Amino acid sequence: MRTRFILLALPPLVLLLIAAVIVQLIAVRDEESVDRKASERLTLYRQTILGEYDKYRYLPYVLARDPRATIVLNMQQTTESANRYLEEMAENSGANLLYIMNTDGVTLGASNWRDELSLVGRNYGFRPYFKAAMAGEEGRFFAIGATMGEPGLFLSRPTPVKGPPRGVAVVKVDMRPLEQAWAEGGEIVFASDANGVIFLSSVSDWRYKVLHPLSDSLLSKIRETRQFAGLPLELLSDASGNADNVLAIDGRRYRHNQADVGLLGWKLHFLVPVEETKENLWPVWVSAIGLSLLYAVGVLVFRGRALRRASALLRQESEELRELNLRLTDEVEERKRIERELIKAQEGLARSSRLAAVGQMSAAVAHELNQPLAALRMFVAGTRKFLEKLNIEAARENLSEIDGLQHRMAALTQELKRFARPAESRIESIDLKENIRAAAKIALPRFEETGVDLTVTLPEEPLRLETAPLPVEQVLLNLLRNGADAASQVADGKVLLEAKRLEDAIVIEVSDNGAGVPEEIREKIFDPFFTTKLSSGGLGLGLSISGRIAEDIGGSLSVATNTFGGATFTLSLPAARDLRPRREDSSNKTSETKAQEVPAE
Ligand code: ADP
C-alpha cells in the first residue's frame, strides 16, 4: 500500500523537481540577462552624466581667461558690464549660474545679479570647489545651492589660469533636467558620490539618502561644506534585507548593478525589482503544478475506473455465490426430503420385518411347544397309571417333570413376548451361576435327544450381575442349543460352558466340537433370519436376539474358532461393581442335569 502510494506520488514529485531545476536555471539566466541589460544601461547613463560634465567643463576656464568677466577682480567690486556678460554667457551656454569670486570667496560678479537671491556679495569661501581652485586646481563639486537651495554641479578654475590666483571662476550646472530625463525613462537609476550619498535619482524620494552609514567625522565635514544643506542623509536600504546584488528598499527587493562614472569617485546604480526578474519563472511553476494536477486527476479517474471494475467484478462474484448458495440450499432441502422418505421407508420395513418375524416365530413356537406338549401328555398318562397303581413316589416324580415342562413352555412364550417387547424386564441383582444352571436344565432335553455331552464349568465365587435374569438365560439357552445342534453332527459331540470373572467383566464361553462357523458367514450369523437350519425349522433369530440382549446389558457377543475346529461363542457382560466376590460352597453342583459341572481351575 505504502510503496504503491510512493510510486503514484513519484511522477509529480519528479516533475516538480525538474520544474525547480528549470526555474533555478531560468533564474540564473534571467539574472544574467538583467545584469547584462543593467550594465548596458549603466554605460548609457554614465554617458549622459559625463556628457553634461564635458559640456560645461571648459566654461570656467573660458571665464577665467575672459577679462570681461575677470574685470571685477581688478576693480575688486561688482560691475554691471561683467554681470551682464556673465548673464549672457549663462543664457547661451545653458549653464545655471556663472560667477566670479575673489580670493576671500566673495562673489563679485554673477549671472543672476538681477535676482533677489543674487549671489553678488555673498561669500562661498567654505566650498571645496573654491578651495581647490585657490590651490590652482580644477574644482568639481556637487552640492545643494547655499543660497537658492537648488542642487547642481559646481565647476571652478582659478584666474588667471596660471600663476597665483586672483580669483575663481565658477559654473554651476543644473543636473535636474538630466534627472528628469532619467525619471521619464521609467527606469530606476541613481548616482552616489564618493561618500555614498545619493545626489541624483530617478526616484526623487531616494535623493540625499546614503547607501551606508557615514562616520561622524565625515558627517561634520559635509556639514562644514554645507554640501547637502544640512539634510539628515538617512540610510536608503533596509540593510537586513540586503544580499548579494540585492538591495531591499522600503520592503521591496531590487537587483542591484553599479558602475563607476569615472568622475569624482561617483557611482551609478541601476535597480530592477527582483519580482520582475522572476517573471519568466511563473509559467514554469504554473505548468509543472498544472501537469501535476492533471496527473492527479488522471490517477483519480484511472483509480475510479479500476475501482468500478473491481466492484463490478465483486458484484458478479457475489451474484454467483448467491446462486451457488441457492443451489446448495435446494440440494440440502432435497437431501432432507430424501432422508425423511428413507426414515419412513425404514420404519415401514422394520414394521413389516417385525410382522414377518412374529409370523415365523409363531410357527417356531408351535413347533417348539409340540415337543413338550407331547412329553406332557406322556407324563400325564404315566402319572395317571402310577396313581392307579398307587405308586405315589413315581407319580410325584412325574409331576415334577410336568412342572419342568410347564416352565419350559412358559419360557418359550416369554421368548416370543420378549421379541415383541424386548424392553419389558425387571432389573435385579443376580448370581449368574444360577441362571447358567437354569439354562442348562432347559436345554438338557436337546442334549439328550442328540446325545451330545454338556460340561458346565463354574467358579466358586458368585458371578454378580445387575440385570433382568430372563434375557440372559435366553442368550445362554440359545448358545447351548446352537452348540448341541452343531456338535450333534459329529460322532463324539460335546459342548463346554465355562464362566469366569475377569476384572470388571463376567465372561461365558460356549464351545463345541462341531463344524464351526465358516469364515464367509461369520458376519452374517448375527443378522436376523439368517439360518442354515431351514430344513429343521431354524428361525435365524436366536443369535440376533442374543446379540441385542448382550448389547442392551452393556456387554457383547462374539464368535471364534476353537482348537477342536468348532465354534466358541463368547458372551461378555459387565460385572456388578459394588458387590465384592463372596466365597460360596463349592460342592453346590447342578446334579439334576446330566451335565458334568467342574469348578474353575
Ligand atoms: P438358528 O439356530 O435358528 O439357525 P441362530 O441365530 O441361533 O438361528 O443361528 C444362526 C446360524 O448360525 C445357524 O443357522 C448356524 O448356521 C450358525 N451357528 C450358530 N451356532 C453355531 C455353532 N455352535 N456352530 C456352527 N454354526 C452355528
Question: Could you write a compact summary of the structure shown?
Answer:
Helices cover 50% and strands 18% of the residues. By secondary structure, it is of the alpha+beta class.
The CATH homologous superfamily of the largest domain corresponds to: Histidine kinase-like ATPase, C-terminal domain
Number of H- or I-type helical stretches:
13
- Name the strands of the widest sheet in spatial order: 16-17-15-14-12-18
Number of strands: 18
Whole-angstrom Rg: 74 Å
- Helix content range: 40-55%
Mean pLDDT: 85
Main sheet record: 6 strands, mixed
> Cofactors and ligands present?
adenosine-5'-diphosphate
Show unreliable segments. 579-595
Q: Would you mind describing this structure in some detail?
A:
By secondary structure, the protein is an alpha+beta fold. The protein folds into 5 domains: 8-28 and 279-354, no CATH class; 58-174, Beta-Lactamase (2-Layer Sandwich), CATH 3.30.450; 178-277, 2-Layer Sandwich (Beta-Lactamase), CATH 3.30.450.20; 369-417; 422-594, Heat Shock Protein 90, CATH 3.30.565.10. Helix content is 50%, strand content 18%. The strands form 4 sheets. Strands 16-17-15-14-12-18 form a 6-stranded mixed beta sheet. Strands 2-1-5-4-3 form a 5-stranded antiparallel beta sheet, sandwiched between helices. Strand 6 and strand 7 form a beta hairpin. Helix 1 (2-57) runs antiparallel to helix 9 (281-388). The two termini are 84 Å apart. 29% of the residues are buried. The model is unreliable at 579-595 (pLDDT under 50). Its EC number is 2.7.13.3. GO terms for molecular function: ATP binding; phosphorelay sensor kinase activity. Residues 364-577 form the Histidine kinase domain. This is C4-dicarboxylate transport sensor protein DctB.
